[in-house]
# Entry
Amino acid sequence: MSNVVILDGAWGTELQARGLTAGDCPDEWNISHPDAVISVASAYANAGSRIILTNTFRSNRIALSDYGFADRVVQFNAEGVAHSKTGAGGRAQVFGSVGPSGKVMAAGEVTADQLRTAFEEQIKAMADAKVDGIVIETMSDPEEAVIAVAAARRTGLPVVASMAYDTGKKKDRTMTGATPERAAEMLAEAGADIVGANCGCGIELYVDICRRLHAATSKPIWIKANAGLPEVAGGKTRYTMTAGEFGHYAKALEEAGASYIGGCCGTNPDFIRALCGVLSGEN
Amino acid sequence: MADLKELYDAILTGNAKKAAAVTQASLDEGVQPMDMVTHQMVPAMAEVGRLFECEEYFVPELLLSGRAMKACMELLRPLLSKQGVEPVGRVVIGTVKGDLHDIGKNLVACMLEGGGFEVIDLGADVAPDQFVNTVQSKNVKIVALSALLTVTMNSMRTTIQAFRDAGLREKVKIMVGGAPVTQQFADEIGADGFSENASAAVTLARKLVAA
# Structure
């Protein structure tokens, strides 16, 4: 029996399946379409996820200002936590999703103080809504992730810090050039309880990233990879990897040191079921 | 006497303030604008591109160097125009409708400016009509479209269609890029070119204006 904790899968595509269109702010659906958001959380809990995230990936004031929602931070985050808790129905813990600001600090687009203020505001709103943990995810710049980790640490909740590796010839760097080793060291030092990788260029490339993170830190490792690389056909972008193929990688990830496994872009509740099946030894 | 090597170094290390200061000091001493461009600035950006290709530089470094180059060009361009030196070409750039991500687009805009193009940046979430109207009102040679999301890639197709509908498709070259974009997708939607990264975008734009 595996000790791996199963996480959830993608949210954006699940909301699109429920009517979200390009250009809509997904996080705003916490207010306008609460039932759809609850049903995504519920679908993942039904599939076997033991930790479910929140529909709050962009709910920091810097990212929300692009949509004209900068003054809605507290509301979006509080409702996001409430919806995931409702959907989880006590079957899963709810960890609050904190995505990047979308600005490059090293290029002067945003200052460390602005990032600190934005992340503290978002994370406090989720802590006040009684979230079980904080997940800082899809980060490209470890410096930005470290600021978010520090903000999350102040809540006393468990903190996950996860970067996206999608750059360079071997696709093993973040957009700002950080290696898994460098990121693991910085995130652990900043006080993250769990260090991870998510999004990126497909689960097949994340087995090696997982191994490198595991070798670089004694912290537990969190992996939420994409369902392979997308294909474009007939004007539509599709992830062609099947749930079964995705689930097949669960063992390799576990052997590479992953303690928490879920999915990112292109995954849905079927992929989570496949992970559960493989790790419980049922198939 | 201003040390022109400092200009090269300031661009290479992305120090915009220093780059502009050295440029101004050199102008004051009578150095020809074109000499600075060809002997210091273009070689510096070429080195930035090389460091990016061999993975010593990443996105932040490219942005910083691009900005340093831009700061210099703002001082030099009016003088170059007066001397009758035209930019390599005029590019209108934007992230397509429905997509708010602008890091990649900013990067390509910076690198194109560094490469001697004049860039009109329409920002993010740009409607097809905005691209078309800009091309109609200005003498634009290249339209550069960016998208980060798989769901907004299709706005590239509708933008290209808008150029056909306006009867302007043959007037401009359209190049596309962004994380989910591939050569196959570029071919499928009828774009004139695709580049994998910001450094390659400059090479592509040069090829397109020469074509």
